[in-house]
Design a protein that fits this description.
The protein is an all-alpha fold. The protein has 5 helices and no strands.
C-alpha cells in the first residue's frame, strides 16, 4: 500500500506555477508542463492531475502552450528545406566515403610500391641488411 501524500494548498500550487512560468519562459522560451509543476510541488503526475484538474486545464489551455513550433504547419517550407538538407548531407557523406576508400587504396598501393623500390635499390647498391635481433644460439 502506498502512503498518502500530503497535498499542497491551491495557492501554493499557483505560486509554484507562476515561478515555473517565469523560469521556463525566461530561459527556454517554452511554457511550463504539468509534469514539471507536479515535480515542483512534490507530487506524482497522476496525483497532481487527479487533485488539481482546474490548474491542469489552465496549463493546457494557456496561450503559451500553443506556441509550440510545428514545422508541418509552415506551408511545408521547413519540411522541404530539412528534406533537401538531409538529401544533400547524405550525398556528401556518400561522396566522402568513396573518397576515403580511394585514398586507402592509394596508400596501400604506395606502400607496396615503396617496399618493392627499396628492395630493388638495395639489390642494385649491394646493401646488406644488419639484423637488429641477436643471433640464435
Amino acid at each position: 500500500m502506498t502512503r498518502r501524500a500530503s497535498l499542497p494548498a491551491e495557492d501554493d500550487v499557483r505560486a509554484a506555477l507562476d515561478a515555473l512560468r517565469n523560469e521556463t519562459v525566461g530561459t527556454t522560451g517554452r511554457p511550463p508542463t504539468v509534469l514539471a509543476l507536479a515535480q515542483r510541488v512534490g507530487l506524482a503526475n497522476s496525483t497532481f492531475r487527479r487533485n488539481f484538474p482546474a490548474i491542469v486545464a489552465e496549463i493546457i489551455r494557456s496561450p503559451d502552450s500553443s506556441r509550440k513550433p510545428d514545422i508541418s504547419r509552415r506551408d511545408g517550407t521547413a519540411v522541404e528545406r530539412l528534406t533537401e538538407q538531409n538529401t544533400r548531407l547524405r550525398l556528401t557523406n556518400r561522396e566522402l566515403t568513396d573518397q576515403v576508400a580511394l585514398a586507402m587504396a592509394a596508400i596501400q598501393r604506395l606502400s607496396l610500391d615503396n617496399r618493392q623500390l627499396r628492395a630493388e635499390l638495395e639489390a642494385v647498391c649491394n646493401v646488406s641488411r644488419i639484423s637488429t635481433r641477436p643471433p640464435c644460439r
